[in-house]
Amino acid sequence: MNKDKLFEVLAEPNRRRMLDYLRFRERTVGELVALSSLSQPGVSKHLRILREANLVSVRKEAQNHLYRLNAEPLQEIADWFEPYRQFWSSKLDDLENALDEERE
Amino acid sequence: MNKDKLFEVLAEPNRRRMLDYLRFRERTVGELVALSSLSQPGVSKHLRILREANLVSVRKEAQNHLYRLNAEPLQEIADWFEPYRQFWSSKLDDLENALDEERE
DNA sequence: AAATTATATTACTTTTCGGTTATATTTCTG
DNA sequence: CAGAAATATAACCGAAAAGTAATATAATTT
User: Fold this and answer.
1) SS3 B39
2) Where do the HTH arsR-type domain residues begin and end (chains A, B) (predicted)?
């Protein structure tokens, strides 16, 4: 799965919320429906997209489909932000320097 | 600017690429057009969206509009990924533990 | 002042997305 | 085995997105 696609998948707030729920434990589709404001097919549609992005896996237990988070692909996206960190940390440095100067 | 909107703004690859270019220095619209595969209006349209998301600022110098990165809002987005880091670092821990056991 | 350069905005088109309802599929239960 | 429960898929729709060509605006140069 490439980075562009992953960004797109994560752009949808319902999908991010689902991943957030899955951080704590596996969830059935029904549980995720209850936690969302969407219809069951709406949730299933998003789950399919998450599956195709390899952000979740499923395991069947009777009629229940248990979805589990797979966070690994998120790493790639998080990496995109790395080069930008220096900007906000350098802002902090500026502030520190300013304070240092005041103290002198 | 709220998180949902920011995610959406960043979902567009051309916009991310523009931000990447702006990491190094200010750029005029013309330069960004040259660096992209889009028409000038296309670039201007994306720049407007980046402006409205407060991810860039502009300063005019004669007919040139110089765009500059403002990375601060990215921090909020990067934060979303924090709770997920434990997943990939715990994977690493698992690997380490496995290796440790092998050594014993 | 006219022509040129740099950028923004408008108007329009095509495509994609997210949502819904209806339906199919699978498994459990009485 | 019939009905219920859980989920997925299909078909459809409206709204939004991204792109372009044409045009407006502003500053520059000759």
Assistant:
1) coil
2) 1-89
Report the C-alpha gap between A88 and A47 in whole angstroms.
Answer: 34
Q: In what order do the strands lie in the sheet with B64-69?
A: B27-28, B64-69, B56-61
Please say if the pLDDT value at position A26 is more than 50: yes
Q: How many CB atoms lie within 10 A of CB B2?
A: 10
pLDDT, one tens digit per residue, over B57-80 is 999 999 999 999 999 999 999 999
Is the CB of residue B39 inside 7 Å of nucleic acid strand D?
yes
Tell which of B2, B3, B6, B7 to mutate to test the A interface (max A CBs under 10 Å).
Answer: B7
* Single pTM value for the model: 0.87
Nearest Cα of chain A lies from the Cα of B40 at a distance, in angstroms, of: 22
**3-state SS of chain B: helix, strand, coil percent to 5?**
65, 15, 20
CB B26 within 8 A of CB B67: yes
Question: Residue B71 to residues A20, A47, A96, B29, B59: CA-CA distances in angstroms?
Answer: 25, 32, 19, 19, 16
Contact B11 A8 (CB under 8 A): yes
